[in-house]
Amino acid sequence: MSLKNGKAIIFNGATKPLEETEFPLPKKLDKEEILVKISLSTVCGSDVHTWQGKRPFPTPCILGHEIVGKIVEMGNEIKNDFSGNSLEKGDRIVWSMTANCGECYFCKVVKIPQKCEHLFKYGHVASDKYPHFTGGFSQYVVLPRGSSVFKIPSELSDEEVAPLMCAGACIMNGFDLAGLTKCDYVAVQGCGALGMYSCAFAKELGAKKVIAIEPIEERLQLAKEFGADYLINESNESEEMIVKKVLEITKGRGVDYGIEAVGIPEAIQTGFKMLRIGGKYIIYGAIYPGDKVTIDSFEITTKCLQLFGVHNYSPIHLEKTINLVRQVKDKYPFKKIVGPSFELSKDGIEAALKSQESRSSLRPAIIPK
Ligand SMILES: [Zn+2]
Ligand SMILES: [Zn+2]
Q1: How many structural domains comprise the chain?
Q2: How close is the Cα of 123 to the center of ligand 2, in Å?
């Protein structure tokens, strides 16, 4: 490998400006490492939360954990991807957001590898030490041992794949956990990227009707393209009215599954009231420490409700998500989730984060040169 550098944008903490820097590319990779040249990264809502200082975070760091790119070089023990397809230099790949050890209590016994005792999480690791290239807002990324890689099917574009690495696969994990299958009604609270995937995946996994709830009309209309049958614009609506509308749609019974994809704790209170007896509620978005919510425990017991908290996913969920999106790519406008595009520069990343923060785009894209 030639002695080259790669450009990266560094996050130094919430109140500090982003910084453009260069790191040296690894001279020799470890036998299980892969060097990837990034072709596209997307900005996740949690990148914005970190940038705003809403959660504790190691710095300096390269943010970005929804990434696709091509293999530049790989360690000599890498032969196949997670699904068993052979891997070669130049292959276009995506990978699980977390790398895990495969040996610890959480990997082996509990089987929640995303909570591995030796976890590595892309876009969440300090970049001051080797391999430096640990996040998506960069020209390159180094995948450490324990990463689960997937060769991208040729019929899927970078845009259709990048957000699956966080948003898409997280949704799949929650649906798996809650056993979402043939059912009458699913309510999706929040039509950001998580919400769009929720609508489409719920329909594909067997929901007869999906109810999308969201204050931005444009997003609701897009949710319709992702399979939502009923749209509730919640701006200027009281919680009581929203619940009333859901109950009217479901003939007074309530929904089988409620999906919280908003990131606002109050939505959980509203969501619980929409559930039918025996209903299941999946929480994705509420992820800052200190977010409190009041839930009537009487309601949980007497309505026999079940609650599922979802944080990240295991590689099998990313595999399932890629396969599903591949099958139904012509039914839903997955590409519309991504954009506009920004360049890999200090100003480009700042503009992309602002675009996500102002909710003017679902997944701003970073395209390095
Ligand atoms: Zn994310
Ligand atoms: Zn482990």
Answers
A1: 2
A2: 19
User: 318 is in which domain, residue-wise?
Assistant: 5-166+313-367
pLDDT digits (tens, 9 = 90+) for 273-315: 999 999 999 999 876 777 788 888 999 999 999 999 999 999 9
ω into 364 cis (within 30 of 0): no
Q: Do residue 153 and residue 254 come from a single domain?
A: no
- Whole-number Å distance, alpha carbon 37 to ligand 2 midpoint, is 27
pLDDT at 267: 93
28 C-alpha vs ligand 1 centroid, how far in Å? 30
The closest ligand to the CA of 118 turns out to be 2
Residue at 354: amino acid letter: K
pTM here is: 0.97
How far does residue 147's CA lie from ligand 2's centre (Å)?
12
Domain check: are 80 and 187 in the same one? no
Q: Are residues 142 and 236 in the same domain?
A: no
Return d(Cα 348, Cα 363) in angstroms, integer.
14
Distance (Å) of CA 139 to CA 119, 136, 278, 344, 356: 23, 8, 48, 8, 21
221: which residues sit within 8 A by CB, 6+ positions away?
231
Q: What is the pLDDT of residues 19-46, one digit of tens each?
A: 999 999 999 999 999 999 999 999 999 9
Q: Which ligand is nearest to the CA of 312?
A: 1
117 C-alpha to ligand 2 centroid (Å)? 5
Of the listed ligands, the closest to the CA of 287 is 1
Taking the centre of ligand 2 as the mean of its atom positions, its distance from the CA of residue 120, in whole angstroms, is 10
